[in-house]
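INFO  loader      accepted 1 record
INFO  loader      residues=284
INFO  predictor   begin
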Amino acid sequence: MYTDNYLQSTFQSSSKYVLDEELAQIVNISMVLEMPLLLKGEPGTGKTMLAHAIAESLDMPLTILNVKSNMKLVDTLYQYDTLTRLNDSRFGDSTRDVSNIEDYIKMGKIGQTFVADQRHVLLIDEIDKADTDFQDDMLDILDQMEFDIIEVDKKMQARYRPVIIITSNAKKDLSEPFLGRCNFHHIAFPDPDMMRRIVSVHFPDVSDELMDNCIRVFYNLRELRGIEKKPATRELINWIRALKADPDFNPKKLKKGELPYLGVLFKKSQDYNIARETTPKMKF
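INFO  predictor   done
INFO  writer      dumping tokens
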């Protein structure tokens, strides 16, 4: 039903996302096969940003469903606002017709992509926070591209099948049926060469000295003993941004273990203290 549209849209790159060939292939084949793409990888490896990049590259709106542990599937499809209908019925000062329940139906994040007048990228972020029933039932809806609004006995069918990107931080195992209905890609943490490409995209005018020193220090910091949450790519980008914004900063200081703005890299007190106590003794 949707295949011709998918073949006409090919994801290649975006202005702020460095794409390797394997990832581009799995994104594009997932669109052709009309299957969700499940992405795993440690936080900060670009799973969420990939959905933004796809939306930019294909000129599609992006809808984001941030999964919560207490989330109900029906709320991602639609909500029936009974309280507003009750108030309208009591006070009678609304332009809505209280006898028409559809006036009080509001689409949830998944429902919005079904009724939209163009194809969306649908990012379902951190699916591992949800329970197994939520995961499996959600994929039933996304397979069938339809759901029922029971209050009005109405079936909602998707006008366009969204490009579905699902992320997981691997905090909890996903069910076998869920995994079987998705394509899968693990986004590995970038090696230093890939990281240089990423930094260059964000900072085209960065000096070789600053880039080399920052990247060398960054990878050493990730290996500090006792660190619970290693700094990720986004922390490195923000750290370089902070260093560039400081008119008094000299990149040569990094080689001596003089590392300003450690709070940009480390977000946990224990990690911050380990870095602050260890780095003055290190040579980079």
